[in-house]
Structures
1.
Amino acid sequence: MSDFEPGRRQRKKQATRDDLMDHAARLFDERGFDAVTTTDIAEAADVSQRTFFRHFSSKEAVLYGHADVLRRRLLDEFANRPDQESVVDSVIAAVRAMGGYYETHHDETFLQARLAADFPAVAAYARAYVQNDWEHELTAAIAARMGIDPLADPRPEILASAAFAAYRAAVRRWSAGGGRAAFGELLDESLAALATFPG
Amino acid sequence: MSDFEPGRRQRKKQATRDDLMDHAARLFDERGFDAVTTTDIAEAADVSQRTFFRHFSSKEAVLYGHADVLRRRLLDEFANRPDQESVVDSVIAAVRAMGGYYETHHDETFLQARLAADFPAVAAYARAYVQNDWEHELTAAIAARMGIDPLADPRPEILASAAFAAYRAAVRRWSAGGGRAAFGELLDESLAALATFPG
DNA sequence: TTGACTTATGTCAGTGACTGACATAAACTC
DNA sequence: GAGTTTATGTCAGTCACTGACATAAGTCAA
């Protein structure tokens, strides 16, 4: 039950989840988002549609099944920044660390970007659920670091929101360029604008 | 066909739309968002469900049927700011002008805030469609004012995003206080943090 | 006024995302 | 090996949303 011994049951559950994500990505890539049904994905992974919805709360969610990995990178990096560093620089470093995922998972992230550009429902999900969650968590971390209440003081939310605006700008440029540019460099350029805001 | 003579057809269409929005607001207020179906709303307005979807693209959309009014206020105010004013101050003034809607339409906007707090689907729609649209338009206006390309330079998007983060913070505080505080003052306080960012 | 047209709406049938309830077999525990 | 937990299958259902076609009201020109 620890991290070292997931047990057969947990391993099978994880395998089913991974299967669903892999087949969903393949089908979305081949046909686009709208032309794939949740039943298609379930059948490709050889499970029932009901099982699909036990693993993912929506058709969009299966496309962002690794969002918690990115969130963890974001928060871990932020937490590990030195205390004497400015909060803005810590935020930049945290988002930058999260962006490293794009370099090691090029096809997965580029598919997300492409589908978000082509299908409004995908973009809406990414914005309203995935990024919103990241932003909310980062806001809480910033507020804790600053020693203030994020419900009373808008600054943590503003900073987190600005950081993800820079992140989105980088994704857009990267996606528009066919995913050929080095994402990390685009992200660095975008995030640099944070330090000189509102420059 | 001009603004002065909408014609009977246009007037009836607008009346149907207004009816749908009014009955939807009443039903949502009484029962909550999930417990009201689009058929309920249509029947309350004495039209078919198909007509509902000819006026609104989703069940969420009917709750934000006045979003284009707020967008127009935002963009008009921004366009009318003096050229010598700093862009940040113009953005603050534009969002502040938009926020004036809350003071003249208290019940409508408070219902939106309450439902967004209680129903994730409402919050997601507000974030991914309504605010995203405003943010996108404001980004374009900022970029035009700065004379730069918003696809190449992330600063307009960052500024617009930061402004709406301040806006959301104000709405949250207002909503948490039961809508009794003066929204304009809360918004002023939030927006002040923009000028001193990242202070 | 009449006749041609445009368009807002109704009706109908369908698709597909998502959910609750119940049963089962595998995995886990002792 | 017995008892418990849980991931999955099956089934039936709700509801948001859409395309196709018909109709009646509104519009406009002769």
2.
Amino acid sequence: MSKKKITSMDVAKLAGVSQSTVSRVFGSGANVSEKKRNQILEAAELLGYQPNAIARGLITNKTNMIGIVMRNIQNPFYPEVLEKFYTRLAEKGYHLIFMNSEHNFVQEDEISHLIEYHVDGVIITDALLSSSAVQRFLKNDIAIILFNRYIENPDYSAVFCDNFYAGQEIGNYLVKTGHKHFAFISGPLETSTTIDRKKGFEQALAKHGYFDIAVEIGNYSYESGFEAAKKLLQSNKIVDSIFCGNDITALGAIDAAKSLGYNIPEDLSVIGFDDINMASWPSYSLTTWKQPIEDMVNQTIDLLLHEMDEEEKSVSSHALPGELIIRGSVRQRE
Amino acid sequence: MSKKKITSMDVAKLAGVSQSTVSRVFGSGANVSEKKRNQILEAAELLGYQPNAIARGLITNKTNMIGIVMRNIQNPFYPEVLEKFYTRLAEKGYHLIFMNSEHNFVQEDEISHLIEYHVDGVIITDALLSSSAVQRFLKNDIAIILFNRYIENPDYSAVFCDNFYAGQEIGNYLVKTGHKHFAFISGPLETSTTIDRKKGFEQALAKHGYFDIAVEIGNYSYESGFEAAKKLLQSNKIVDSIFCGNDITALGAIDAAKSLGYNIPEDLSVIGFDDINMASWPSYSLTTWKQPIEDMVNQTIDLLLHEMDEEEKSVSSHALPGELIIRGSVRQRE
DNA sequence: TTGAAAGCGTTACCAC
DNA sequence: GTGGTAACGCTTTCAA
């Protein structure tokens, strides 16, 4: 019925002022008398006027929209990340265009959509950008930031957990608690997260004289953890501890071990990564490495907003430490 | 550096045609000769031209953006829902503005943002709209649809699992499998989902002569399931089976029971709702009611798109059945 | 402090 | 088929 949309012009007419003045009230707010402001606000209220962000974006060249492309949203770590990004950005007046990518590299058409909508910035979680993709974003003046991944010599910033350090600490902890036969269930080998966790882990163990680490390649899913652990435990190798690339994988590994008659942690220690909610559930009580989500998200947003403001880009990589959360899935030295 | 954005005008100049013709190529596609089309496409490719969706939206009055406001994104059911919505809508050329609401009623400022951006439609999962909110959307010609909730006498459509039917079937199943002492751990009592599941459950049990159902009120979280089950099992009531309002709650209940020395399902049967991935994990092997996510999402999208097209709204409520998934958390009659 | 007018990058409606 | 031109609803000069 009332198909006609309410515009600033309608408000102007009703309030008996010019459209420019209405615009000032809802925009800068400056240079308008208290009296007219009130008339305008009243008229706007009466008509149910809302400024049109689309029209505004067209002229200001700023949409206040941020694209977020996520992968593995089924991994409980990411909904939490998404929620935090949403909340923080909403506070600052930004809106999220959500995209779910299924590939290690964000696809060209996904990038096209983000560019078409002229988002002010893009957050990429757990995926990478081809160099042509980066060029396309940069050429369109769209700030980019990588969350939980990084690359060498990037043209853009990245925020991630210091996976190498974490891997080391985990290795040290397992040695300290008396383990001698180690295994690692990785995520996909092309991801920097996996590579660094593995490197740190192996390096720490090597320092203690352990060079023979059993490695199984997974994909960060429960199922892959389950299968990998099964394979590991049914081989003729001795394994007294498994470091899993993430928590979901670790939960799979624990279930596999239990199904083979192992007691956790008496017969086998398992350690995860992320510290998702489930890690603290009694059925699992998973010892794990806590990624500092809060800090990571805040830092990402700070960098992104800064980059959106600045004229010249300042590229920087930020590795946040995180911390070991000790629960019940790792046997303490007897 | 190349701060200047490429517009259809630039393409037109390079291709030696008018801007109108460029617009036709990227728009309707009609009324342009093969020759010019190729020139234009070539020029666009060369310049890296992308049509500006913001400008387009301004004139067409259609943004191809859909707002999705979700609650409880930490419940693993919803990331799956989000992923499916994203995928289906992306196929059809729609983009998602993601919002996370923490309230049972979507807040006024959240609605304002959606209206400012002139989304074509809005999907609300697991939350409700005040009647003033509905009026605001409708007045702005924004289609609305409720996912997994419904209200009586609505002004808009809703898609949800037939919770009453499911509750009945679950009641019947527990009776059939030889249970006699029933409990229900609910979600918040103001949600239609909870009310209907409870009603169906109680009605089915009543038909078999069971009237004394122990009820604990939870909030659909793991923790609330844990606490509620503990309370239930430590009371002096006999309980041989618990129907939990959702899977997460059921997992909490199982862990609580185990921590008290109960074996599942020998000493206690537990049944959930949703059929999230975790329900099939060996540690839990949860018997549950599967919500037909795929169908629900598809139906929601069909209704939404239809409503966006139509002049007059056609309100309808769609209850989809779902099905019982039998695993190992319910004792079979001995 | 205010209003008129020029865009922003499209689509849509005209003539030709 | 094609190009000129008027919107779309706003912000932003620029004069007054």
